Each structure stands twice: as structure tokens, then as C-alpha cells.
Amino acid sequence: MNSKLWIQKALTTCSLMALIASYSMVALAAAPANSGELIVSGSAGETSFVTVNGEPAKSGRTVFSSSTISTPDGMNATLNLGKAGKVAFGPNTTFSVNFDESSITGTLTSGNLTVLGATQPVEVKTLDRGIVRLNAGETVSATATTLRDDTRDSTGKCIDSDNDGKLECDDDGNWLVWGLVVAGAIAGLIFIATADNDADIGGGAATVSPTR
Fold first, then answer.
1. How far apart are CA 57 and CA 67, in angstroms?
2. What is the pLDDT of residues 69-79, one digit of tens each?
3. How many angstroms separate the Cα of 118 from the Cα of each of 32, 98, 135?
4. What is the model's pTM?
5. How far apart are CA 40 and CA 81, in angstroms?
6. Distance between CA atoms of 108 and 97, rounded to whole angstroms?
7. Can you tell me the distance from the alpha carbon of 94 to that of 89, in angstroms, rounded to the nearest whole number?
8. CA proximity to 116, closest of 76, 148, 156
9. Rounded distance between C-alpha atoms, residue 182 and residue 173, angstroms
10. Closest-CA residue to 39 (of 71, 1, 74)
């Protein structure tokens, strides 16, 4: 009787150990989540903090993909994502970031963002211009990009200077044409008014006195 009990305990223990070993192997085989490090700076010094997903965060905070970072007034933050790149946020900025080992994307709803370095262009969705692709050293704001408008080179070819994927040089040309049309119309009206003022108003037929 005792021998059967010991055999049952041994089988139970072996089964439990096998189950634990299986789950451990699955956990070790799972790919680690992408993460980055947040660096905070501002007028408050060591007590400086921003928020990550609504929670206060200081320098050294680990940030995972699909997080929302917000900086208050007077505070700046830098997000170091390793090989993917590094981005900086100005005061009063809110940015929802998504990233993997080689790319960074996100939505900028307020403030401004600067790309300090990246293995490939950072795609930022803004409120007024849709998705803007930024290279290292370029900045974008939520409501108006600080990049140059599209320009033409020496051959007249339109260059996508603001990296938004759209060639907008023709828009400037249309404004110039309309400006010339309006200026021409105004000049015509002035000419007509001047010509009317120079007309001889006092002239007329000779008056003949009646015969007495």
C-alpha cells in the first residue's frame, strides 16, 4: 500500500516538473518587447518629470512601443530608442510613439518634435499636413511644420523640401498668376478713370443769334 502511494507521489512530482519546464521554455523563447529610455530635462532640475501614458516619469524611465509621452510647460524630453534612433520633444508636446528595432512612427497632437538621429526617416502624423517624413536634424510641429516649403532648383525642377511626399511648387505659381491678374485689373481701372477726367466737358455747338 505504501509503495503505491510513493509511486503516485513520484509520478505527480515528475508531471509537475515537466509542466514547469515547458512553460519556462515558452517564456524564454518569446521575443522581448521593444523599449527605449526616456531622458527628462527642464527648469525643475532633478525633480523634472513628464508623463508616460498619464503617469509621472523621470529620467531613466523605460518606454515601450504604443506609449503616449507628454511634456508640460518648461520641460523637455528625449527618447533614446537605440538602433532605431533618438527623438526630442519640446515643452507642451504630446506624442504617441510606435517603434521597432529599425523604425519610428507616431502621432503628434501638440508641441514639436525633433529627430536627433534615425536609421530611416521618422514618420510623424500631424494635424494639418498628414504624415511628414523627417530625417536627422529636422523638426516638425503639430499645427505647422518648421521645414521649408517646396522649392525649385536651378533647372526649375520642384524639390520636396518639406519631405511630405507632395510637390507643392505649383501652388506658389498659382498665387503669383492671380496676383498679376488682380494687379492688371486695378491698373486698367485707374487708366479708365484718368482718361474720363481728361475728357473735354465744356465743348459744344456754336450759338447763332436770331436776326432782328
1. 12
2. 999 999 999 99
3. 21, 14, 7
4. 0.55
5. 14
6. 9
7. 8
8. 76
9. 14
10. 71
